[in-house]
Amino acid sequence: MMTYTFIALVTLFTTSDASLLPPPVPAYRNLTADPVSVGHAVRNLQTTVDFYNGTLGLVLLEQTEWRNDSAYGQLTATTGASYRQAILAIPNQHWTLTLTEYQGLERAEVKQREQDPADPGLTLTVKNSTTINNVLSGINATTVNGEPVPAGGAAGTTSTVWVYDPDGYMVELVQRSNASDYFTVPEPTVTDGPGMTYVIRGQLDLTMENYTQALTFYHDILDFDIAPGFEPLIGPDEYQQVGFIGSVFNISSNTSWAAVTGNCDPVTRCEWYEYDDPDRVALIYPVQDIGVGLTYYAVQNLDAILNEVIAANLTIVTEGGSPVVVNGMRSILIRDPAGYLVMLEEEPATISL
């Protein structure tokens, strides 16, 4: 998919915008996998584009017309449906945001909750929390905890607000206090260029049924540089009460949580959580359902990874259970151990003549 996207966008940008484009070949950190996009199914593509592009200021890289592609239908188990997409740049990241709208099949609406397994979250670091919170208040954004959008924090402090986008997908807008607040990734380059009116970096979050599932899949199979714990809040392989943090998500303060954190690539912080909330319900829905998340990973040896996926008894969503070629990429859609949707994509080997 990313190869197609890059080629389609070449003529759309000036030289000054070139840094916003994802590289045509992912910059592999290791020999296994790297994130290339994150996204979800949307109710109405233009409405959601208006939120991320018009409100949050992310640069729109591509927006397609309706397509009916039998290979894509097989890949995503949406045979017979049409789809259209928009791809937006995330500042200082190699990966993008992919929004997909489907038509021609039933779609349920899924409103996310932080405590539910397979619940994703997109964290966007912002320059100034007061500025972005005023913007969110201006559009009457719905916060995850149902409270009004708060006033932002002073410069040099950590200030965060979690909101729902138009599809019920959770987005965090956070102002970092200093370099240490980026944890395991370096501070981003901050400019006033395209796409950085408010947002300066992205981060990927996901809730698991059990925190150890993040290790068995994202560490053991995809080889990410991650480990148990979320210092200084949670030590390795331990549970702590969420305390005041629970108020952000309407989770009881005496709910226990555990975490796995680290890097998906050298500049991408990734965090996985487990909550012992007795009311949690796994968000396992078809890819077309509104608000359902999906993360795309570029891999170097799809067949080897697929063998490990099968050995781990993970669910393969793609019809027929084998990779499908879409936009020049061998791809397959699976579910991670929590049931979250994961797209594995492999570029065909280059042939030297």
Automatic annotation (TrEMBL):
Q: Has keyword Signal? A: yes
**Coiled coil region boundaries:** none
Query: Annotated Gene Ontology MF terms?
Result: metal ion binding; methylmalonyl-CoA epimerase activity
Could you tell me which Pfam families the record lists for this protein? Answer: Glyoxalase
Q: Which GO terms describe its biological process?
A: L-methylmalonyl-CoA metabolic process
Signal peptide per UniProt: 1-18
Q: Which InterPro entries match?
A: Glyas_Bleomycin-R_OHBP_Dase, Glyas_Fos-R_dOase_dom, MMCE/EMCE_epimerase, VOC_core
Q: What keywords is this UniProt entry annotated with?
A: Metal-binding, Signal
Q: Which domain of life is it from?
A: Eukaryota
Is Signal one of the keywords? yes
Q: SUPFAM superfamilies this protein is in?
A: Glyoxalase/Bleomycin resistance protein/Dihydroxybiphenyl dioxygenase
Which intervals hold domain VOC?
34-176, 200-347
> Which protein is depicted?
VOC domain-containing protein
What organism is this sequence from?
Lophiostoma macrostomum CBS 122681
